[in-house]
Amino acid sequence: MTSPNRQIVFDSVSKFYGEVLGVNRVSFALDPGITSLVGPNGSGKTTLLNLLTGLIKPTRGSIHVLGLTTGQPVELFRQVGYCTQFDSFPPGSTGYDFIFWPLRLHGFGREQAARLTDEALERAGMTQVARRKVAGYSKGMRQRIRLAQAIAHHPSVLVLDEPLNGLDPIARAEAIALFGALAVQGMHVIISSHILEEVDRISDRVVLMSSGYVVAEGQIREVRQEVRDHPMQILVRCSNAARLASAAFELNHVVEAKIVNDGRGVLIRTRDAEQFYLRLNKIVCSGLIEVEAVAPADDDVDSIYQYLIGCNGGPI
Amino acid sequence: MNARLITRAKEWTQEQPWELYATQIFVLMRNEIRRNLFARRRLWVYLLAAIPVVILLVQRAFARNTAEPFYIESATRVLARIVHLYYVRLGIFFACMGIFTWLFRGEVVERTLHYQFLVPVRREVLVIGKFLAGTLISIFLFESAVLACFYLTYDRFGAAGWSYIFDGPGLHQLGAYLLVTALTCIGYGSVFLALSLLFKNPIVPGLVLMGWETIAPILPAWAQRLSVTSYLRHLCPVELPVEGPLAIFTVVAEPVAPVLAILGLLCLSVAVLVLSCFLIDRIEITYTAE
Fold first, then answer.
1. Quick one: which H or E segment has residue A232?
2. What angle do CA A300, A304, A309 make, to 5 degrees?
3. What is the CB neighbour count within 10 angstroms for residue A205?
4. CA distance A56 to A73
5. Does the beta-carbon distance from B112 to A92 stay under 8 Å?
């Protein structure tokens, strides 16, 4: 078990804006790695991130980030970098100044601050335009310069609110690769995003939110297992689809077996995936069919979210 | 008990990263001065500072001959009125309202305050850094203006004017005006900074403060201690007679030693700054609610 001093812990945290609910009774503990915060607009994702970084204070409950509270800003913000979704910058500031001067506030000397600034600009791919005023940047460049500022002081916790917004596909792929690399180094990377399929690929765990409540939290597969009411979909690409479909129907937990359009696979819906995989092994061993691929068809955040919240394909 | 408290205070003092705080205050001041002093939206503050200078320049342009030395006393009273009735009562008051309320509220309007809260800077240090920046800006502007007024007032008397400055009471008066100007900036600055943290729109409380400062002379002695101008009048180097419609703006009170007046105003400012340090801790970043 990870020590609380390495975790981000929310303990019964509630936040009300007057009578309006921000988040309610949120409790979880996050280990290092990438955590995705998923939910529709107004579900409380940004509120949760702002609570974590002390930009707002909880009405009830407590938050500890690596054993520190938001009442210890000097210690906390050496450990935390937050890339907010506020698209605003100090007037007249250049990309370089935007990173350099906050580093000076961290207490870094001029030379070290300059070195860290150059390094962050390099990582965000902003070196060429660093001396230009931020006001003249495109949306994607503004997003990247904020990201550069958030990582410049080498934080242990990187909090990213919609970090992929405004990025072109190449920059998006680079950003995701960067998040992955940071997580591998043992960092906490907390991402709020609605581009689920991209975040999904690199997330170690997910926190699903709706109307201010955490509706599910954990590793994506674990969360999926908890959704018992919704049979899991498994796509089996094989040589004899009809035979597999027929064998699958003999199993009580299989509620549907549908041959896919090209006739070279079966989409199975089952209430017990583990049992199905065991049975599939036996079928393959008996030589009745040759399996090319087996893949869960709805083992992603998007599907889980839709099962839990009932969001019918709307924007999350 | 006292010994324990003293030991604890010593420990606390030793634990504090003073060098870091000093660097942070320097950086905050640098950022704030760039943001506030060299901005187009500050033109009206420059105008407030420059109005008497412009009037004196115009007067000088029309009166080309050297003025008679006989009028130096009258010019001295005019200068005293400019400093006490215009700068202290109006110019610095409204300029400080603009500069100091904008230190935090401006960042809320521009949606940049969160950057200040996401760095390892204690919020108290943030308040002090911004306050010092605001003070430096306002003192620079208004002391320059007072200096210019002083020069224009006495230069037109030629040799008699320079003699009044260097051989007479001129330099002492200049020192007093500069001190009063600086203290006014500090006093009003601290009050407006606190008001900006207390109210979303500090203009209405600012006007209430102006009313308070105006009626302060007729209030009991204890209430006068809560007024910035009540400390400043004791530092006025030139007695201003209470007469005419301006009498309402002119303060008459028991004399207080200048040192006590300075200390009193500084104590009041420090007390208001301490209040600001408590208030800043309550601030949350909810730009949409502003």
1. strand A232-238
2. 150
3. 18
4. 13
5. no
- Residue identified by tokens 């606190």 is B194
CATH number of A230-309: 3.30.70.100
The beta-carbon neighbor of B120 closest among A53, A57, A106 is: A106
Determine whether the interchain pair A105/B17 forms a contact, defined as Cβ–Cβ distance below 8 Å.
no
Give the span between the Cα atoms of B102 and B137, in whole angstroms. 13
Look at the alpha carbons of A278, A284, A289, A295 in this order and tell me if their dihedral is positive or negative.
positive
Domain A4-218 is found in CATH 3.40.50.300: yes
A86–B23 C-beta distance less than 8 A: no
Q: Which two tokens stand for residue B133?
A: 């920046």
pLDDT tens-digit series, residues A12-66: 999 998 888 899 999 999 999 999 998 878 889 999 999 999 999 999 999 999 9
Among A45-54, B167-176, B233-242, which stretch is predicted with the lowest mean pLDDT? B233-242
Stated length of chain B: 290
Cβ distance A105 to B285 less than 8 Å, yes or no, reads no
Helix (H) or strand (E) holding B193: helix B170-198
Backbone torsions φ then ψ of B58, nearest 5 degrees:
-65, -45
Q: Tell whether the model's pLDDT for residue B94 goes beyond 90.
A: yes
Q: Which of A56, A74, A101 comes nearest B120 by C-beta?
A: A74
Spatial distance between the Cα atoms of A144 and A222, rounded to a whole number of angstroms: 33
Take residue B119 and report the two structure tokens written for it.
């760095």
| Total-model pTM | 0.83
Helix intervals (H) in A106-165 = 110-123, 139-151
pLDDT at residue B1, rounded to an integer: 63
Going by DSSP bridges, is the β-strand pair A188-192/A33-38 parallel, antiparallel, or unpaired?
Answer: parallel
Query: Least CA distance to B36: which residue of chain A?
Result: A91
Reduced to 3 states, what is the DSSP secondary structure of residue A69?
Answer: coil
Q: In chain A, which residues touch B (CB < 8 A)? A: 17, 50, 53-57, 73-78, 80, 82, 84, 86, 88-92, 101-102, 104-107
